[in-house]
Amino acid sequence: MNPHLDERVLTWGPPEAAVTVLAVHGRGQEPEFMRELATRFGPLPARFVAPAAAGGSWYPLPFLQPLSGNQPHLDESLAAIEARVDALSDVVLFGFSQGACLLAHLLLTRPRRVAAAVLFTGGFIGPDPIKPPTGAELDGVPVVLRSIEDDPWVPAHRVVETGRLFEAAGARLDLKIEPGTEHIVTDEACAAAADLIRRLAQL
Fold first, then answer.
1. pLDDT value, residue 89
2. Cis (ω within 30 of 0) for the bond into 72?
3. Which 3 state secondary structure label does DSSP give 22?
4. Which residues of 5-20 are buried (b: 16+ CB within 10 A; e: fewer)?
5. pLDDT at 135
6. What is the residue range of 121's domain?
7. pLDDT of residue 156
8. How far is CA 158 from the centre of its chain?
9. Which residues of the chain have pLDDT under 50?
């Protein structure tokens, strides 16, 4: 049994909304964190679906550690998010911190067609470079990547490297690393996410 699939799922926003957003929280957080973060986007024509991680974490060790140390937890988490994505149509992936790492790794190792991705302070998982996907799943997919230059948990160079992999896979990348030393989401990042969701709603 996948422990994450037994956890609760928080939803908000109109069910008939033009855009569905899968919101994935970070380590030690709950879906309510993502709901609070999304309030900073302002009113949006979007329905949000936020699954909870079992024990408040998607994998136990820091994301730059060898992949083997995070198994089988990582594969369970990827499978749980895959199941959530497959149950939705044309979904926007939205993650912060550990949630952003999980979503970036999912798209770069198990690519699937999504409407867009908004990843705050995260990058692909593991110490070694990975190859970008070669299929057509990410062609033209908008990806917003945001982070802080001296974030205490997520090195800026890994976020930049992750962005390069998305570009190599054909995604339309919007990357910005802002100055600072805190593990936060800036107003600019929220504005970029909200703008993307509004544009998708008009398609």
1. 84
2. yes
3. strand
4. eebeebebbeeeebbb
5. 81
6. 3-201
7. 97
8. 15
9. none
* Domain harbouring 122, CATH code: 3.40.50.1820
The letter for the amino acid at 45 is P
pTM confidence score: 0.96
* Structural domains counted in the chain: 1
- Residue 35 makes CB contacts below 8 A (sequence gap 6+) with 10, 12, 23, 48, 50
Tokens 């198994």 locate to 71
Burial of 202 (C-beta count, 10 Å sphere; 0-12/13-18/19+): exposed
Amino acid 42 reads: G
Q: What single letter denotes the amino acid at residue 35?
A: R
Look-up: residue for tokens 């497959």?
86
The closest alpha carbon to 98, from 143, 53, 37, belongs to 53
* pLDDT for the residue 22: 99
pLDDT tens for 163-178 read 999 999 999 999 999 9
C-alpha 55/C-alpha 65 separation (Å) is 20
Report pLDDT digits (tens) over 75-90. Answer: 999 999 999 999 998 8
Number of H helices, E strands in the chain: 5, 7
